[in-house]
Every structure is written in C-alpha cells, then in structure tokens.
Design goal:
7 helices; 265 residues; alpha/beta; binds hypoxanthine; Rossmann fold; five-stranded mixed β-barrel; single chain
Length: 265
C-alpha cells in the first residue's frame, strides 16, 4: 500500500470515511482558522511524512470534520520550498487529500502587495500566478502526466463561487496575479519593481508549488491571499515575519467570513 493510502486509512479510522467536499490550506498567521472545524485534529507528527518542523504562525495539524454543514479537511500548516529546497514539500499531504476523495482545494497565504488599491488587511483572489522562483515540484516525475496544463489552474467556477460568497458578505475580493518568490529573504525593491513590470499584483513564498501539485493530482483549486504589507520599497513600513503574523489576523477575519459563506452556499 502506498504511504498516502496508509495515511488515508489512519485518517478515516479517526475521522470517519466520508470524503471531504473541500480542503483548505492555511497560510502564515491563519492557522487558527482550523479550530473552526467540528471534528478531530490530527497532529502532523502522527502522520508519518507530513512536514512538522514548520514555520511559526502555522499550526501543524490536520483538522477534519464539518464546517458550515460541509465535510472539510483543513491543513493548518504548510511546508515551504525555502525550508528544505524541495518544491514538492507538500506533495504527501496533497496526495492524502486526493486519496481521501477530496476534489476541491482552497489555498490561503500571506502576501505582499504591489498595488495601492490592495493595502495591508485586504484580500486578493488569485486569478493566475507566475512561478518566479524557477523551481517546479514535478521535476523528476517520470511519466507524461508531468506535462500538466496550467491554463485554468485557478479554477474559474471555484473563483466565481468565492467572488459570490465575498459579495454576499460585503467583503471586497479583487482578483490579481500572485508572483512566487522562493524566500526566505524578502524581496528587494528592484525585485518588487520587476514583479510589477511582469504583471504581478502580489508576491509571496508559497502556494504556487501546491497549485501545480494539486493540478497534477486532478484537484480543482483556487487561492486567496491575505495582504499583510506593501512590497519592499513601496512603503515606509518595515517588512518582517513578525509583521506578517501581526497583520494576518486583520485580513483573516474577512477571509473566515468569505470561506464560511463559500462552504455554506
Ligand atoms: N513578500 C513575500 N512573502 C510575503 C510578503 C512579502 O512582502 N508578505 C507576506 N508574505
């Protein structure tokens, strides 16, 4: 039995066999959203191969149960490319979601803004992305399945549902392009200017490899950024991880409203 099948069996034993309607991945400072789930929380440490060294501001637990009447699986923390140099760091958790029968995935992250009309505290729905880090989680994959089309990687129907949920809640949810930098150092002002010229609206250090992996596995996905700061050089504020963690909860309240409505409807 594959490792993902074994883990899926362990999870079903603890949480029941019903497949999740939707999975969520929580970004920096957003981990507490997992506690909204009525069900069980399984520490990543119990799930052999799940990343649990982690980054502060993440909650390394899999929450599985119901939220707003829907069966959900919530990954409270993620591993990043910059932790190990492996772009496929989230492969096993995503394989387990697929193994559990989950078909939809909504990813969240904290991001820096390149746009004046996207100030800290706002949300941005990813319309598309740029894999500027230059890595790809499918390098080394041996079959032709590795040639994953990415045209509608940010699923139009899921995005429409998220926009409708936001509108119903009175929350602004503009769309924009997310540019993936490897981190862990933040960008330079010149890199931020370059990302703008390339057509990006926000920058961050996650999500893109997960979208690529999820599409490879056939999951439909969408992603929402919580803007925690302006990109380097665009404002006088000092960028830091502490600042990210302090600002994330501001947007997280709106994100929670949108996600709850999205699940309910
Ligand atoms: N750059 C990259 N990642 C981030 C930022 C940023 O400015 N803010 C939050 N995550």
């Amino acid at each position: 039995m594959s490792r993902s099948a074994e883990l899926a069996r362990l999870i079903r034993d603890r949480a029941g066999a019903a497949p999740p309607d939707c999975a969520l991945v929580l970004g920096s400072g957003l981990g507490h959203l997992g506690s909204m789930v009525r069900g069980v929380a399984i520490p990543y440490a119990d799930l052999d191969g799940f990343p649990h060294a982690g980054v502060s501001g993440h909650v390394p637990q899999l929450f599985i149960g119901t939220l707003e009447g829907r069966r959900v699986a919530v990954l409270g923390g993620r591993a990043h490319y910059y932790e190990t140099g492996r772009a496929d760091a989230m492969r096993l958790p995503l394989e387990v979601l697929a193994e559990l029968g989950c078909e939809r995935l909504v990813l969240t992250n904290a991001a820096g803004s390149l746009r004046d009309d996207l100030p800290p505290g706002s949300l941005m729905l990813l319309s598309d992305h740029i894999a500027f880090a230059g890595a790809n989680p499918l390098i080394g994959e041996a079959t032709d399945a590795r040639f994953v089309p990415m045209t509608d990687a940010h699923d139009p129907a899921l995005r429409a549902a998220l926009r409708e949920a936001a509108a119903a809640e009175g929350v602004d949810l503009p769309e924009g392009v997310y540019c993936w930098f490897s981190g862990p150092s933040f960008e330079t002002p010149a890199e931020i200017r370059a990302a703008r010229v390339l057509g990006a609206d926000a920058v961050g250090m996650s999500t893109v490899p997960e979208i690529i992996l999820a599409r490879f596995m056939g999951l439909r996905c969408a992603a929402v950024s919580v803007i925690t700061n302006m990109g380097a050089g665009l404002s006088a504020e000092r960028i830091s991880h502490d600042h990210t963690k302090a600002m994330a909860p501001v947007g997280a309240r709106k994100l929670e409203q949108v996600l709850r409505r999205f699940l309910r409807d």
